[in-house]
Amino acid sequence: MQPIKYVDALGEYYGSMGHPPYRWTINETAPLHRLSKSLSECTVSLLTSGGVSQCSMPAFNPDARNDHRLDAIDRDISATDFQVHDSYYDHSDADADINCIFPIDRLRELAANGEIGAVANRFWSGFMGRIYNRSKITDETGPAFADALMEDRVDILVAAPS
Question: How many structural domains are present in the chain?
């Protein structure tokens, strides 16, 4: 079996609809660094971009473009209180078990077992859909999200794109 060449496949797909080639963002100065403490001392949060929303919240537009909506989700929410709306992947498994794309129960288990220090006060869902106005992410929504993570004293963010 040959691996899927994701970037090539996306280019062909959108090109067939008349879209220009996608300009991928290349981060050469990402502020990544080694942890200064062990995982068992870290507070961890989670972000999914898979069209996941609480049942009490409006559903994401499954065909969204440039949707910068970001929902804060209380860490104690039940894993059964979600809906998934995204037209770009088969989410039937996630409809049956949200942990497939938003592993909140697995994160809680890691905390209960002492493998991570704690689950952050909030989980996150957003940045859903195809985002083409990158400057809004780098200048507005990204820094606001980073501030929220710092407010929650998050050491590690697990990103679960879909």
Answer: 1
